[in-house]
Amino acid sequence: MKRQQTGRTPGRPKGNTDSRSVLLNAASALFMAYGYEPVSLNQIAEKAGVTKASIYYYFNGKSDLFTASVTEMMGRIAMYTRQLLAQGGTLRERLVKVAEAKIAVNHVEFETMMREAIHSLSEAQRLQIREAEHDIHRVLAEYFAVAAEAGEMRSGEDPLLLAHAFSSLLMVGGRDTSLAPDAQQSGLAERIVNLFWRGAGPHA
Length: 204
What we know:
Elements (H helix, E strand, L loop, with lengths): L18 H16 L6 H8 L3 H7 L3 H24 L5 H13 L6 H8 L5 H27 L9 H17 L9 H16 L4
């Protein structure tokens, strides 16, 4: 007797939930909280509320899921950074908002996480992640270039270099909690932006 076709690919997760998106959100949250090595596929599946088999329906393994989750997360960061920078107020005020948003998220240091993962990633995966990271820098550089043309920042500086410098300061602020012992995240954001602005602001 011929088996009746169900119309569903074997192994495909059941239900109407977008399991891939749920998996990506769960994976990025765990990777950013604990790093690459300590996180297992079983933990990700449990947090996402799916089976481990569901992970292999969408991804080839841990490195593939890591790459997809990190690049998608960075895409969201780039989009949110653009939204914050597109708001009203001076550029310096908007940079404080960007810094506050970055510091408010508890996570492992990105470069540390990448060092853990690097040997498990293919060259193509490494490039994909670095390109997604670079998209965030490009957003910042775009606004720095506009500010320089308007005289709000000193002209003649490389906007992309300034973007990397600002991002590096944000990473320090997010990593070293001793910089804000009273958990005054807004105050720390101001201090970081002030440190950056003294080097990037227009000459008096």
